[in-house]
Amino acid sequence: MQALLMQALLMQALFMRAYQEMADDMRQYQITRNGKNTPLAMTILAWDKEIILASSQKGPNSFSYGFADTEVRLALQRCHDSHREGPSGADARHKMQGKCGEEMASHLYYLFNKGRPLGTRGAVVGTMVADNTNDPPEATDPCGVDGEVGS
């Protein structure tokens, strides 16, 4: 139990540090903090003795959908295929257009771990999301829980 508590505290400290670094970079490059320009999520993907920190993506085009042959794109397609909407069977597009921190962290994982499925690594993922105020970010459920696409 103590090990889990220490892991949770370490992840929270990493979240806060990574989010603050992102905010500092945005100030340095004079990027206005608002919902259109500011990634509001910071994700940690951890396995073995490795971690990846990734923010959510902003902008009009989705990196996850822009490249057809990535592991993340293929996973999103499998998710879509199993979550068809309505009687017509129309595609259930990812709620955040595949721009969540979880997808960005997964892209980085596969960039350095080709041929090693993430699902076999015993990875832990956590995400914190801020709103457009100066309130600190809060932990949130990962993308895609409760049976909803991108919930």
Describe this structure in words.
The structure is a single chain. The protein is of the alpha+beta class and 151 residues long. It has one domain (2-140). Helix content is 36%, strand content 15%. It contains four helices and four strands. The chain has helices at residues 2-28, 63-66, 71-82, 101-112; strands at 41-47, 50-55, 124-129, 138-140. It is globular, with a radius of gyration of 16 Å.
Q: What descriptors fit this protein?
A:
151 residues, 4 strands
Topology:
Elements: H1 2-28, E1 41-47, E2 50-55, H2 63-66, H3 71-82, H4 101-112, E3 124-129, E4 138-140
Antiparallel strand pairs: 1-2, 1-3, 3-4
Q: Helical segment tally?
A: 4
Distance between the termini: 29 Å
Low-confidence stretches: 145-151
Average pLDDT across residues?
A: 80
Structural class: alpha+beta
How does the overall form come out from the CA principal axes? globular
Q: Work out the radius of gyration.
A: 16 Å
Q: Give me the count of strands.
A: 4
SSE succession: HEEHHHEE
The oligomeric status of these chains comes to single chain
Let me know the largest β-sheet: 4 strands, antiparallel
Percentage of residues in strands: 5-15%
Compact description:
With 151 residues, the protein is of the alpha+beta class. Helices cover 36% and strands 15% of the residues.
